[in-house]
Amino acid sequence: MREAYRLAQEARSTGRVLSRLFQQAVRTGKRARTETSISSGAVSISSAAVDLARKIFGELTGKEAMILGPGRPAN
Predict the structure, then answer these.
(1) What's the pLDDT score for residue 58?
(2) Model's pTM, two decimal places?
C-alpha cells in the first residue's frame, strides 16, 4: 500500500484529502496490529491451508499437493 501511494505521489495524482486518508489508514492499521492479535494468524487462505496441512500431516518437505478451487485464471 505504501508503494502504491508513493507511486501516486510521484505521478502527482494525490492531493491533501488522499494524503490525510492514507496517513490515517497507516496509523489505524498499525494500531490494529499493536493492540490486537490480528497479525498473529495466517495472512492468506493458502498460508492457512499450509498451516492446517502441517498440523494434520506433520513435515511437508518432499510432499506434493494439488490445490483445487474456484480461483480466477491467470492473465
Answers:
(1) 94
(2) 0.47
